[in-house]
Recover the amino acids of this structure.
């Protein structure tokens, strides 16, 4: 309390609450602490700071404000671990001891303040200030990835041009995907055709071995040929339909690309950009004005 002076408490009051608390801590000669890790010390500092605000608000002179802070600090220390009856007795004795430092009005205001704050919430104060708290603190280190260094603006692309390039690239990728799907379908149909032919041929071989040769050879052969033709026609029909659909889709994509290319935005030429920047400069503006005035003469 040696550094706590009337000028000091005046400065505490003039600061905002965070700065005022910190200034009061320095005046009390307390070491720095973390509000989250050391909640007890933080609550003590809040209580002392609130006593300053109370005293100033009630019109206490700055000298008496210092005494209010001392009164608060002594009361918290002397009532630690006491019952509420003992705390009320200690509060009454301290008010009697401080009669010479305050007038009757301020002494009554101080009594009401501590009855309505400290005594009313006495059990809460005792629980916080008298019992050690178990701290379970988990620290997690999170790596923050900084964004990459952007390229120079001179190497950038106009926004409209970039969007146009992205649209053209999407159409090209879609066209390539359709061609790939067509190749995959061809391979799948070829495998399916071979499987169906093998299945049909296997059935006819069973018929040939189970029946007389002279009567069924021609019929089985005709059935095998017709079945093979039917399988090939079915596979070719499906492939042809898909190829026609893909051809129409590719033509539509090419038409869209052609339309985009016709409406493509034109980027500013480097020479034109430099000329525009030069014309917008103050020196160029003065030179143009000079040329115009000479022309008028």
């Amino acid at each position: 309390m040696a550094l706590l002076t009337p000028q000091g408490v005046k400065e505490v009051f003039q600061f905002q609450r965070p700065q005022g608390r910190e200034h009061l801590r320095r005046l009390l000669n307390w070491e720095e602490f973390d509000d989250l890790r050391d909640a007890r010390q933080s609550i003590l500092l809040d209580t002392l700071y609130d006593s300053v605000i109370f005293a100033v608000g009630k019109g206490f002179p700055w000298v008496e404000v210092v005494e209010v802070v001392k009164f608060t600090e002594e009361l918290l220390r002397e009532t630690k671990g006491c019952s509420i009856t003992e705390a009320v007795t200690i509060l009454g004795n301290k008010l009697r001891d401080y009669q010479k430092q305050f007038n009757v009005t301020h002494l009554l205001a101080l009594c009401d303040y501590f009855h309505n704050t400290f005594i009313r919430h006495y059990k809460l104060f005792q629980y916080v200030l008298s019992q050690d708290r178990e701290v379970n603190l988990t620290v997690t280190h999170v790596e923050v990835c900084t964004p990459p260094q952007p390229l120079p603006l001179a190497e950038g692309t106009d926004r409209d041009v970039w969007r146009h390039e992205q649209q053209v690239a999407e159409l090209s990728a879609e066209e390539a995907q359709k061609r790939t799907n067509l190749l995959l379908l061809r391979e799948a149909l070829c495998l399916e055709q071979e499987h169906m032919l093998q299945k049909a041929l296997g059935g006819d071989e069973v018929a040939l071995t189970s029946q007389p040769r002279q009567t069924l050879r021609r019929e089985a052969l005709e059935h095998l040929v017709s079945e093979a033709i039917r399988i090939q026609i079915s596979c070719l029909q499906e492939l042809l339909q898909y190829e026609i659909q893909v051809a129409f889709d590719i033509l539509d994509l090419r038409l869209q690309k052609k339309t985009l290319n016709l409406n493509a935005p034109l980027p500013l030429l480097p020479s034109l950009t430099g000329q525009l920047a030069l014309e917008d400069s103050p020196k160029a503006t003065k030179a143009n004005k000079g040329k115009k005035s000479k022309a008028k003469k």
